[in-house]
Amino acid sequence: MKNAEDGEDAARLRFGQLLRKARGQAGLSQQELAAAAMVSQSAVSDLELGKKGTRRDPVVRLDKALTARGVLVDAWDAVFSGSGMTAYFREVAESEHVATTIREYSLSLVPGLFQVEEYVRAISEIAEPDKPPEVITKIVKARKLRKQILERPHPPKVTVLLDEVVLLRRFRNPEVMRLQISHLLKLSYRPRMHIQLVPTTAEDHPGLGGSFKLMDVPDTGSFVYIESQQTGLSLKQPDVVARYDRTFAELRSAALPVAASRARMEEIRGNIT
């Protein structure tokens, strides 16, 4: 219970920092923002200090008053919507909404930002076979909320490196992977999205140590996130981030070019029976 409370406190503080930054960029005082968003000045102050949470409606009004283009709303949805997100992942989910670049390498699964609902359900039911259907539905909802950042007019620049074995995985329902690959192909044509496969023929590549995610966040810097089945860890030490940065560069050199990756995805999809 204590860890959950600590997670909520930290999430409110980070949301407050995001709100304060947005207000500064808009050049508004707390009083001016309160008037424009039809909330009390004390509510704005409490939110910025992380003293308390709020409902979604005031966040929508604050976002509109600040012309934040959905950044505040998406950040609130991702963390406070009651979608069952694990506490250790909250900072990562919040960072996704303000990141300028996201680079991700996956050795075992399609990353969460790019999963279709059928894939989310399948892997969640496998990982948590004893969970009731309503819990699985919450997990699906959390993925949908996270993916909203990709629909913005100016989303972060994203580079995804997938080990080819990720797409060779078979599910009881073959339609799951067929739909997932079709979604990845569609995303691969977006201008700020690069999806590349690291082929199984790549010998001794440095990604065999496991999946990781690199993000560049304004005013925060770069950090790397690594995750196991039961927990996750954000690493911000410059030397550690630099090592993962080099590893990502090496993996990208080993990956197929974008067009060749797209052709290989189409081939894999065509072989699913």
Descriptive report:
It contains twelve helices and six strands. Helix content is 52%, strand content 13%. Strand 5 (221-227) and strand 6 (232-235) form a beta hairpin. The model is unreliable at 1-5 (pLDDT under 50). It has a six-stranded mixed beta sheet, with helices on both faces. The chain is α/β, with parallel strands linked by helices and 273 residues long. Helix 2 (30-37) packs across helix 3 (41-49) and helix 7 (117-127) crosses helix 8. The longest helix is centred in the N-terminal third of the chain and has 25 residues, at 2-26. It folds into two domains: 1-80, Orthogonal Bundle (434 Repressor (Amino-terminal Domain)); 87-273, Endonuclease, Chain A. It has helices at residues 2-26, 30-37, 41-49, 56-65, 71-80, 90-96, 117-127, 133-146, 165-168, 175-187, 238-254, 258-270, and strands at residues 101-106, 157-163, 193-198, 212-217, 221-227, 232-235.
At a glance:
Helix 1 (2-26) crosses helix 3 (41-49). The protein contains 12 helices and 6 strands. With 273 residues, the protein is of the alpha/beta class.
